[in-house]
Every structure is written in structure tokens, then in C-alpha cells.
Design brief:
Helix content is 27%, strand content 28%. By secondary structure, the protein is of the alpha/beta class. It folds into 2 domains: 224 residues, Zn peptidases (Aminopeptidase), CATH 3.40.630.10; 68 residues, OB fold (Dihydrolipoamide Acetyltransferase, E2P). The strands form 2 sheets. The protein has an 11-stranded mixed beta sheet, with helices on both faces. A 3-stranded antiparallel beta sheet has the order 9-11-12, with no helix packed on it. The longest helix has 18 residues.
């Protein structure tokens, strides 16, 4: 196992949950790595007691070094059972950088998961290329929402039905409560603060730490309170606008997450001309970076 992947690990003397936090699955989204380093430093400095185990892992080490989204392919679109099986059992050629990254990350997770825990939690840290990007993405049923709901930020359902092969799609089948935390704009100091707060929230909500930290909720709630744009508590994804490099896709400026749009609104341009919204809804993750295959999503608020 590549020791460079390990950001930090602490184990408690008492039974508790296994909390695994992955950061930098996309190499240009490194704020989660810095946030985890700070959290582990505080735990060590203040001698905060832990129940169970808390571990932080880097996702795509090669891409993090160059601060690019990926080297050969998107490491958050490859977690299909057939692909993982082929890599593990030598049925794939393992030619790409991400092939080896996936195998090593999976090895780390499997090794660290050995043992008895009250719960297994997988948190995947990301940042967005658009403003107002603080929310949770979950694939689980309502019965497994206790930890994400405790964070009191918008929750997005149904994204896994529009995009496949994500980390959070794979690990529920491995008996993990799995979710992604999108915290702020890529490359911003704010994203580091938001990721730190999100990690403290999960550690407390899972029972991994027993004493609330002052960092818990503070940065996220301050962000939401100071931002007058909409923050609906729960939304469901209805539509994905898929793109590729040859499309010359360019999002029009000024859009942000959860912005209300109408059918017929011009949202972007590509080589064919204007791209209009096919439906009314809330805009999710409009793309303002050069890499990626998702131009934007449209969601609706749900009860």
C-alpha cells in the first residue's frame, strides 16, 4: 500500500464507528486534503479522545501532484463492480495511472475496515467550480440519513441515477453509509474551512468524538446565513446535460447552485449554438472548468 495515501489515522480505546474520509479523488480539488491535515493536527494537539477509528486518505495521488482533475480517466466515474473485479483479478491490463490508484485506495479501505465497528461511514470530499456549492449527495434510503441530516445543509438525492461509477455508489454495497460532501469553490480558502467543519460534524454525529468542537457547524452555518441565495433542504435530480471535449461546451457566466431556472432559459453554448433548459427547476453544479463530462444538472425541491 502506498503510504503517501495516508493523511492521518487515529484509533480509540473504546468501541465505536469506522469513519473513512477520502479527499482529492479529483486532483484539482485538494481543499479536503488540507482540511483533514488540520483536523488530525487538532486531534493530536488537544488529545481529543476517539471511539472506533478515524482515517483520512488521499484519492488520486498522481492527479493531486499536478492539480489536474485526473491523469488518464476520472477516478470518480470508474467504481463499477465489473471494473473493480477486472482490476482486482487481473482481467484488465492496468495500464493507466488511475487503475493503480483505484486498486491501492481499495486495498487501504479494505484493510482498515477489518474489525468490529458500530457503523461504517464513508465521506467523500469535493469542491465545485460554481458558487453556492455547499451540499451533500447521498444514494442511500431514508433510513440511513441520520449522519448527513445532522449537518443541516442541503441534501441532493438521485444523482447516482444520472451518473454512474462514483465512489459513493460503490461503497453502500460494502456495508458503508456513504455520501459526498461538496464544500465551496475549487481552490478557495473557504473550501478548506467548509471541509473542516463537515469532517467535525461527521465525527461528532457518528459518535467517533464525544465532545462538540467549536468548529462544528460554525463555518457552514455562517456561509449559509451570509448567503442570500436559495439553500433548499432537499432536492432530487431530474436532468443531466452530458458533454464531451469535442462539444466546446461553455457555461454562460453568473449561474450558481440552486438558482431557479425556467424551461427555455439559455444556460450555455456549444459548437451547435445555444443550450436551453429543457425544464423548470433548480440548477445544480454548472460547470466552470475545462474538464468534466457534466455540463449541469437540474433538480426539483422535495418535501
Amino acid at each position: 500500500m502506498n503510504q503517501d495515501r495516508l493523511i492521518g489515522k487515529v484509533e480509540g480505546s473504546y468501541p465505536g464507528p469506522l469513519v473513512i474520509v477520502v479527499a482529492g479523488l479529483h486532483g484539482n480539488e485538494d481543499s479536503g486534503v488540507y482540511a483533514l491535515e488540520e483536523v488530525f493536527n487538532i486531534i493530536e494537539r488537544d488529545r481529543i479522545p476517539i471511539r472506533g477509528k478515524f482515517i483520512g486518505l488521499k484519492g488520486n495521488i498522481g492527479a493531486l501532484k499536478t492539480r489536474e482533475r485526473y491523469v488518464d480517466y476520472d477516478m470518480n466515474r470508474c467504481w463499477y463492480d465489473h471494473h473493480i473485479h477486472a482490476l482486482k483479478f487481473g482481467q484488465a491490463e492496468r495500464k493507466s495511472s488511475e487503475d493503480m490508484e483505484v486498486l491501492d485506495l481499495l486495498h487501504w479501505i479494505q484493510e482498515e475496515s477489518i474489525g468490529q465497528y458500530t457503523e461504517r461511514v464513508m465521506m467523500d470530499l469535493h469542491a465545485t467550480s460554481s458558487e453556492n456549492g455547499v451540499f451533500i449527495v447521498i444514494p442511500q434510503e431514508e433510513t440511513k440519513l441520520e449522519i448527513p441530516k445532522s449537518m443541516h445543509i442541503p441534501i441532493i438525492f438521485g444523482l447516482e441515477k444520472k451518473i454512474g461509477g462514483t465512489l459513493l455508489n460503490y461503497f453502500p454495497s460494502q456495508d458503508f453509509v456513504s455520501f459526498a460532501f461538496e464544500g465551496g469553490v475549487i481552490g478557495s480558502e473557504e473550501a478548506i474551512k467548509l471541509h473542516k467543519t463537515g469532517v467535525w460534524d461527521v465525527l461528532y454525529a457518528s459518535g467517533c468524538i464525544q465532545v462538540e468542537r467549536e468548529e462544528r457547524h460554525h463555518d457552514v452555518m455562517e456561509y449559509i446565513q451570509n448567503d442570500h441565495r436559495p439553500h433548499p433542504p432537499r432536492v432530487s435530480v431530474l436532468y443531466r446535460h452530458a458533454i464531451n471535449r469535442q462539444d466546446n461546451f461553455k457555461m454562460l457566466p453568473g449561474f450558481s447552485n440552486f438558482q431557479k431556472i425556467k424551461a427555455g432559459d439559455v444556460l450555455a453554448l456549444d459548437k451547435t449554438g445555444e443550450i436551453k433548459s429543457p425544464i423548470d427547476g433548480l440548477l445544480i453544479m454548472p460547470l466552470y472548468q475545462d474538464t468534466g463530462n457534466d455540463g449541469f444538472f437540474i433538480a426539483e425541491e422535495i418535501e
